[in-house]
Amino acid sequence: MSAATTDTAKAPKTSRDWDMAAIAPFVALALLLVLGYFANPNFVSVANLTNVITRSAFIAIIALGATYVISSGGLDLSVGAMVAFVASLMILFMNTGAIGDPTLMLVAAMLVALGLGAACGLANGLITTVGKIEPFIATLGTMGIYRGLTTWLSQGGSITVRDRELQQLYRPVYFGDVFGVPIPIIVIFATAALAAFVLYRTRYGRHLIAVGSNEEVARYSGISVQKVRTIAYIVQGLCVAVAVIIYVPRLGSTSATTGILWELQAITAVVVGGTALRGGVGRIWGTVCGAFILEIVGNIMLLSNFVSEYLIGAIQGAIIIIAMLVQRSLMRK
Amino acid sequence: MTVSPAPVHSSINPRLLDASGLSKTFGIIEVLKDISLTVRAGEVHAIIGENGAGKSTLMKILAGNHQPTRGEIRIDGAPVSFSGPVDAENHGIVLVHQEILLAPDLTVAQNIYLGRELRKGLTVDDQAMRSGARQAIVDLGGYIDPDTIVSRLSIAQRQLVQIARVLLVPHRIVIFDEPTASLTPHETEALLKVIRDIRAKGVGVLYISHRLPEVKEIADRVTVLRDGRLVGSHDAAELQPADMARLMVGRDVAKLYPDRHAAEVRQAVLEVERFEVPGFALDAAFTLRKGEILGFAGLIGAGRTELMEGLVGLRPAKGKVVLNGHPVSFTDVHSSLKAGVAYLSEDRKGKGLLLTKDLRVNLTLASLGKFIRGLQIDRKREGDALDKAIKDFDIRTGTKNILAGQLSGGNQQKLLLAKMMMLDPQVVIIDEPTRGIDIGNKEQIYKFIAALAEEGRSIIVVSSEMPELIGICDRILVMRTGRIVGEVQGEHMTENEIVQLATGVNAGAAA
User: Which of A153, B59, B186, B218 is exposed most, by the fewest CB atoms within 10 A?
Assistant: First the structure.
């Protein structure tokens, strides 16, 4: 029997191993900050760090949704393509000029994006649950569909917000700040706080973890496994939509190549954050931390002269493998 | 070379293996303490004991899967230390596992030679393996086409394949770990014949079982374990099954079951008619009354579990189900739980509890709705409920903050019972309530079941342990190949009558 831990932190502490797995990503982040300082003292300037975190917003927010899907025992490979697809349709909607008032148009466009994201997520969810197709295959399929439709909509090129006034109105959503804090950073933390509340405090969150932990036990306990999983994919779709909403004003346009390989970065952020790929454990703040780690590693490589920045992809690939090895050694007694 | 000690009497077979003072500790728990035994050539040595007595651990040590914490194993008088199962096999000790460990998509021949394929040049020699496999099975007194895919075989046939696979290794000692657990009496008889043939070749056989009549039939020597300790080794001729039971349990077995008042005939709570679970149960009909404990007996594979799962909506099913006078039809567990019918799976670890989650999460999983305040789960009330459950169901745990998987089997079952009772169900269906549970917890669980019936709830107990059904049930229904074939009650509730119904021998049909 393991000795009783006497700490009274809010997460249920069951044994020291689990604590380690939860803390590891934050320790890694702290080490990276120290490493970054030695690589280039400018790295730890407030300006640089806000900049880095702002740039991590897309992956961080998408990864929050991925945390839900992965905790439920699923996987969503389509998120990168979904970003491009939802962004294209959102801009095309803005370009119709259906609503005269720019503010109203902007709000409507955001709602359209959220609706589309939810619909794409619902499609993924229904194909995996009702269609009973492996999530890997199902979302590989929808990845192709969403990407292909985007290429077709953009005719292989890009889609740009045509209305100047609308673009100017929309710009602050990415470039603006509140009391010096960039809006994308606020969106990251607001989304994460909401995601953490739902996952850790509500009945749905408990059911999600139960389904990911052992589907049969959940079913025998009267939980609708299909419903819980489908909702996780919808949450993922909504997170993609939120990412799109802050992505579009950055360039004011999107293209057929938008979001390529984002699904891998999102999954990496989730795994680096300590969420088990087999499901049953979800760490929201770990995921945010994981997204920061990915972006910071890239930033350090740019600022230092040790490693070529062309190797960023290779380094990120190595990170996911190292994270898995660390996770497993921490899980094992 | 060490000279093996010469037998004192020529009538005593040569000693193959001597174990002395074997102990095994996992963490701080001592599961085996100071066990000594001797295996002789041409002898069947049975190891008996309750679940949790340490039989399997002992066998795993002898087969090289575990290292003993203390103690010594000698083969032909020379001390040995096995680095792993392969090392033990090199010493001629092979183990026939309780579970069937075969690749279901491969053929019989491929399974028998898996990992030690015969080769001809660069390719595998299928021809030789096919004839070798056929011969190996014929040697065991059976016939199975070596090209059959294993998933098409019956459980008994798979076991034969597994034994053939194990015996392909040159062996002097064969360990059988509860080989008859899932066999019909007819199949058991065939297996015992195989074991006698092996013995006749001068091989030493260790035979683990808690089916005592079978032990009496096959064993030359019987060693009894209780709570990880050696109770004694005896000549099988000296012991009757009843003596073995007393040695195993260490007390009077009759007190295991709670006293029950003869239930008066009360109103029907659950009426089932023409109920069918396609592929598993056909034309089932029964009535469950208020405050009654109704048993379901039958062989493994008779469709009892599937029938219950069909009733609560876990499997597609059709038929008429009336609950308290109202027709119902459950398509998922949510609806059956809501109506007050709870099913506790036989597969506690796989379907009952989240082993990697703590006790609180497990306790409230099926009844979370009761713990919602506003949008949130009220963790304090959950904690209070856990305190109450630990007290009411006597869940023994040093700390409340452990994972469900860290509880012993008995405490897991109590937790599962507590979890389902959170919903205050009127009908409780318990599948194999004491499988893998030690005797002390068994007794408690029987008391809980009796108490639930006393409170006016109606209970269905599905069990493969006939004494348990006879001990706690008011009536017992017997199933065979998907059908309810009979009911026993009162003085007819005997193992004999149940076995006859379960195997169909009284109907003149071969089992």
Answer: B186
Residue pairs spanning A and B at CB distance below 8 A: 89
- Give pLDDT tens digits for A257-298: 999 999 999 999 999 999 988 899 999 999 999 999 999 998
Q: Are residues B453 and B333 in the same domain?
A: yes
Which chain B residues are Cβ-neighbours of A209 within 8 angstroms? 357, 361
**Is A223 in Cβ contact with B334 (below 8 Å)?**
yes
| Domain endpoint, select from B219, B254, B289 | B254
Query: What is the residue range of B146's domain?
Result: 100-169
Global ipTM: 0.85
The last residue of one of the domains, among B200, B235, B254, is B254
Assess if residue B8 is contained within a domain: no
| Sign of torsion over alpha carbons B311, B316, B319, B325 | positive
pTM, to two decimals: 0.80
Residues B52 and B176 in one domain: yes
- Verify that B141 and B32 share a domain, yes or no: no
Query: CATH number, domain at B291?
Result: 3.40.50.300
Select from B352, B402, B406 the Cβ nearest to the Cβ of A220: B352
Q: Are residues B152 and B196 in the same domain?
A: no
Residue A37: count other Cβ atoms within 10 Å of its Cβ. 13
The reply to whether B119 falls in a domain is yes
Q: Buried b / exposed e across A199-229, counting CB within 10 Å, b at 16+?
A: bbbbbbbbbbbbbbbbbebbbbbbbbbbebb
CB contact under 8 A, B354 and A207: no
3-state secondary structure at position B17: strand
CB contacts of B398 in chain A (<8 Å) are 1, 4
- Give me the number of domains chain B comprises: 4
Q: Which residue has the tokens 């079982």?
A: B209
Tens of pLDDT, residue by residue over A138-150, are 999 999 999 999 9
Would you call B401 and A219 a contact, using CB atoms and an 8 Å cutoff? no
